[in-house]
Amino acid sequence: MTKHALIDSARRLPAPSPPAATEYAARVELLSAEVTRTLRERSDLDALIGPGNAAMMEQNHRNHARFMSNLLGAFDPEVLVETILWVFRAYRGHGFHLTYWPAQLDTWLVVLEDRLPADACREVRRIYDWMLVHQAAFAALSEPEARGEEAREEKRERDSRAA
């Protein structure tokens, strides 16, 4: 799957309602802290994030919650995809393993179910489910060799629009 296909797929997601975004925003610190607490209890944490990366993981969860809060308030599929790709590249460069993201997103889903009102959770969950379903595509596109293909694809797209 290409980056542009991911963006097109994300465009089909319904934007969360303002009340759902507000419910999430009101719980940003609680949500990120609970995700971190839950993941820290895992016996396989180092296998997910690499040794010595617990503080970076915690910061990632805080950043994730803030980013999602902003995204839910002003849904932009391109920003969603570009940010996820950046996160994959950056954190993999620090030793995080591909298995971290599904484990993290599964934890977010449990925490969201526990902490958000049902209506808000249903709306927010669509985006988290979408991220989880597309983990393999994000992993593949975050590989160093994929960047060259991504640049060639973007050039082809620019050239076709100019023609």
Could you explain the architecture of this structure?
The chain has helices at 3-11, 18-25, 28-40, 45-49, 54-73, 77-93, 100-115, 118-133, 135-141, 144-162. The protein is mainly α and 163 residues long. It has one domain: Orthogonal Bundle (Globin-like), CATH 1.10.490. α2 (18-25) crosses α8 (118-133), α3 (28-40) packs antiparallel against α5 and α7 (100-115) runs antiparallel to α8 (118-133). It is globular, with a radius of gyration of 16 Å. The mean pLDDT is 92.
pLDDT under 50 segments (min length 5)? none
- Tell me the CATH topology: Globin-like
Query: H/E series, N to C?
Result: HHHHHHHHHH
CATH 4th-level superfamily: Globins
CATH architecture annotation: Orthogonal Bundle
DSSP helix fraction:
over 70%
Number of domains: 1
Oligomer: single chain
Number of strands: 0
Q: How would you sum up the global shape?
A: globular
CATH hierarchy, class: Mainly Alpha
Question: How confident overall, as mean pLDDT?
Answer: 92
Q: In terms of structural class, how would the helical and strand content be classed?
A: mainly alpha
Q: Biggest β-sheet: count, sense, barrel?
A: none
Cα Rg: 16 Å
Count of discrete alpha- or pi-helical segments spanning 4 or more residues: 10
